[in-house]
Amino acid sequence: MAGSASATLEGLIIDGARTAASDGGVLDVLNPSTGERLARVAKATAADVNRAVAGARAALESAAWGGMAPAERARILYRIAQRIRERADELALLESQDNGKPLRQARADVQVAARYFEFYAGVADKIMGHTIPLGPGFLDFTVREPIGVSAQIIPWNYPIQIGGRGAAAALTAGCAVVLKPAEDAPMTALRLGEIALDCGLPSGVFNVIPGDGPEAGQALASHPDINQLTFTGSIEVGILVAKMAAENIVPVVMELGGKSPNVVFADADLDATVKGVATAIFQNAGQTCSAGSRLLVERKAHDALVERLVAHVKAMRVGPGPDDPDMGPIISRKQLDTVQRYVDIGRQEGAEVIAGGRRPQGTMPAGGFYIEPTLIDRVGPDMRIAQEEIFGPVLSILTFDDVEEAAALANRSQYGLVAGIWTRDINKALTLASRIKTGQIYVNTYGAGGGVELPFGGYKKSGYGREKGLEALASYTQVKNVCVRFGA
Ligand code: NAP
Ligand code: MG
Question: What was the pLDDT predicted at 363?
Fold first, then answer.
């Protein structure tokens, strides 16, 4: 299963060429389904970051990119979308091998990445300014110019999706990009960079430099010649990165974590709700920033919903991602240990593990990082398993009695990324939607395809700024106002 090309070195993509790291450093990239090596990837140093930023800057100032008409940028982005679709099988298998996610999830991720390029391609020649009326003798207008070199630091959980969403939005605005994928899953980001070059994106416009966070990540975030930074990851690293960027007055988009609630009222269609609630937490083995990791259920529906959830979870098949199970492994041994520790913490706090929580039985490879999908009931609102992001397939179940209590519980979190509401009563749904403090709210669904078109980002410590949709362009453009006096 581990790719046969595993001994070949995957070079960094800097200034249009594949290159080894300046010090010859190499990352061993693991396949979490087996624990075996998937690939060897060049590991960027601070010197490589300097080269990538310099390449991006030169591209920005070149006629080839800086002077390209927006409609031509659009054509290149459309070609990238098409090429991603042509290579979908290969990219999906690679994503599944690198991250461990089920093959059909990886296939969906690849389509979403293509959609980002397509969606933003259509925007390239529609980034418009305003005219501002100052009265006779004045012409005042605004121009939205590319913000410049966009540095993007992404996590390992959805590399091709998150790599695509940031790059496509930045490129359509005319920026140049330096992307640092996470060392745990860098492969498809490298493929994106390769595809972009094949599709005619000029050299240096899109650089991809896998490397260690504290070395390459830090060198990129603190680089004095970047103009913008998009960070997707944990709160702790987000704070570090924002401080580094602040030293250079570089604006940051922060896409951080969540402890997102799914709020279920007794009048909901429980069969549809069970599927929605289970997918919201078990997709990608719970390693999703927007995972619906807290279930808040109206007390009188608790038993009926939980019974259905237990049946659903017991029927789930766990196994190697490329075998397309219902759930794959966790990304790494370290992350698996964290998830296991949280299950133990839940027990110690007095909650009840009603399904899962152990290594699954079966014939999965011994070296893989597996855990069963896990339900924990009787969770108190201030327990650590109700408050802290576990980033694994663990659902914490709490109960409420009315809309007031549901709103209070939903908001009892440092996070504010996403919330789901399940009810047939439009008044309850809209009342709660107006009260919950999260950047996205779903009613009787959770997610909408990849959500490419929908602005996405956090309230509270889930971050600030918005990715996805047209709102993302605000981060990748800057406004110039031109005021002209004419006549006498
Ligand atoms: P992480 O540890 O914060 O890492 C994120 C990225 O930052 C990785 O590329 C990492 O590189 C890099 N990094 C680490 N230390 C750094 C440093 N000192 N300076 C600069 N960069 C550094 O997060 P993770 O564990 O990979 O991902 C899980 C977190 O991401 C969760 O909290 C999750 O909720 C959040 N997330 C949010 C979204 C969203 O859109 N809101 C989406 C996905 C994930 P290395 O890993 O290579 O060291
Ligand atoms: Mg991997």
Answer: 82
